[in-house]
Fold:
Amino acid sequence: MLRSVKQHGAPLNLLDLLRCVRPLLVLWTAPPPARRLEFRLGRSRKHKTGGWDRIAPYIRLVMSELVMKDLGFALFETAIGHCGIVWSERGVAGAQLPERNEHATRNRIVRRFPAAREAVPADGMRRAIDDIVALLGGEPRDLTHVAIDTDGVADFNRRVYAVARTIPPGATLSYGEIAARLGDRTLARDVGQALGQNPIPIIVPCHRVLAAGGKTGGFSAPGGVVTKLRLLTIEGAQPGGPTLFGGLPLQVPRRRA
Structure:
């Protein structure tokens, strides 16, 4: 493919590169031999975000290396610890919630975005950082003005993230409610999977999406559900509606004995 493109003198575009690397990615992520035939026939695809969409993170990583996308990142201190932000010329490509310390947060970003280089953010990115810092400090900041780069993200996931970004600080939606806004309430589980793959937490506020009945649901960021409840508490969210004890912090539900 690459040779034929070069012979005709045409520029190598993103679609051409995807066609070239897709066979390699399928082989790389293929299941054991006994299940390989089912994978190729697509029988193992259970959800809208499975199958080919499931390896979108690998595509993003490989494509960032192949096209030499100019990625920068910066760490910044917030009320909950050192966070990180990764950007391209299109917008924010990734965000990182705090790890155990600043060094661990930096290492996680480098593992997620090997092509990114630490840099001084430009004015537009600086504004996004300032707004994130303010939001995590308890101010109800609107982050919908922040442009995001979802190159390599599955189309279904993009649609889920677009709905999630409409949820203001202090409010929540359920997985089923987002699925309903996408036109099919039975996709609630797929919505949960898409949010679990969210590369840009806080800016795409997946912590504001709960399970049915106001239950917490999962959270894939560092700290898991504890971090999710902490973020909701900072924003003053009351998933079950106002109560006599609405001023108290949210807590992780206790497990039954």
Remarks:
- The radius of gyration is 20 Å.
- The chain has ten helices and six strands.
- The mean pLDDT is 79.
